[in-house]
Amino acid sequence: MIIAITPTGDRLHQLKICYELMMQQTIRPDKWFIIDDGVFKLEHIVNGKKDNMEIIIIHREPNPDKITLKDNLLAVLDKLNINDKIIFFEDDDFYPDTYIEAMSQFLDNYLVVGGLLRKYYNLSYKGYWEFTRSTYGTLHSTAFKANEKTLNSLREVCTNGDGYEVDSEFWGKIKSEGLSNFLQSDSRAQVIGVKGWNTGRKGAVVGTHTRNRRKYVYDTDFKTLNYYFGNFSERYKFFIERGFLIDLRRAFLGTIFRYRSFLKSLVKMPIA
After folding, report:
1. Chain centroid to CA 102
2. Residue 82 main-chain phi, psi, to 5 deg
3. Lowest mean pLDDT among 36-40, 60-64, 233-237
4. Phi and psi dihedrals of 75, rounded to 5?
5. pLDDT (tens digit, 9 = 90+) per residue, 122-143?
6. Cα separation of 241 and 124, whole Å?
7. In this structure, which of 96, 121, 126, 223 has its CB flanked by the most CB atoms within 10 Å?
8. Concatenated DSSP letters of 62-93
9. 79-83 contacts: CB < 8 A, separation 24 or more?
10. Can you name the residues that pair with 131 across neighbouring β-strands?
């Protein structure tokens, strides 16, 4: 069985694009687990069953001020079965139509698969950054076949790690145990990491891309954006040009949620 996993929380605009990317996959997973700990509900974006793909939303207590990736992953681990093909499909990144199909094929031969070539586009910088790393795959480009060792490795990382380096720590355990792994460079499975959204909850590695801002190449006339995202280019341009207005509204509503108990107490206070 092919299983896709998407941790998310208050990234409705990103998740809407993510949903469309999933619907365009040449092969869809049998089950798509979406683990949500956001304030804003997402059933109007993703819901139920599409063709032969079951969409399962796991709701967790909202925690908008914390990096909750590892907690969201822990919430789904017990729902995975031995020999399932587990493919991470992150909410804020761009996947080609052939991604699920290609990664599923790789998992016929390896226990863990990741991407060798890393490509990022930062909407705030209007720039792109490409490089290779031969030590591990990012979480958004990682897939694995579920067995006792791979599941325990991920569970240990999510239980004991700080939540910022889930991917590198997971790959480190896989390699230290000598499990079969492969860093692929197939264009059918080339993920584009999208940063600088100007809307929604920030990711765990925002600081990494801030520190490496000078490595981004300015994208004159959106040439690279159009090449990376194809028919989705205009969707991403919107967040470059007007995304900050969306974030102002969401920040305001999020503040109200965080202080809702205090506001309720004010309403209940007797008038002198």
Report:
1. 18
2. -55, 135
3. 60-64
4. -70, -15
5. 999 999 999 999 999 999 999 9
6. 9
7. 121
8. --TTS--HHHHHHHHHTT--TT-EEEE--TTS
9. 79/33, 80/3, 80/146, 80/151, 81/1, 81/146, 82/146, 82/147, 82/148, 83/1, 83/145, 83/146, 83/147
10. 118
What is the pLDDT at residue 258? 57
CA-based nearest residue to 100, from 26, 21, 49: 26
Tokens of 140: 């958004």
Helical H segments across 107-259, by residue range = 148-160, 166-176, 206-211, 223-229, 233-241, 243-258
CB neighbourhood size of 159 (10 A): 11
- Domains of the chain: total: 1
Supply the pTM of this predicted model. 0.87
In the chain, count of helices (H) and strands (E)?
10, 12
**89: CATH:** 3.90.550.10
Cα-trace Rg, the chain? 19
Give the span between the Cα atoms of 41 and 15, in whole angstroms: 11
Q: Which residue has the tokens 């600088």?
A: 196
pLDDT digits (tens, 9 = 90+) for 208-256: 777 788 999 999 999 999 999 999 999 999 999 875 455 555 556 556 6
The tokens describing 258, both together, are 């965080």
Q: Could you give the angle at the alpha carbon of 77 between the alpha carbons of 73 and 78, nearest 5°?
A: 145
Domain that holds residue 145: 2-268
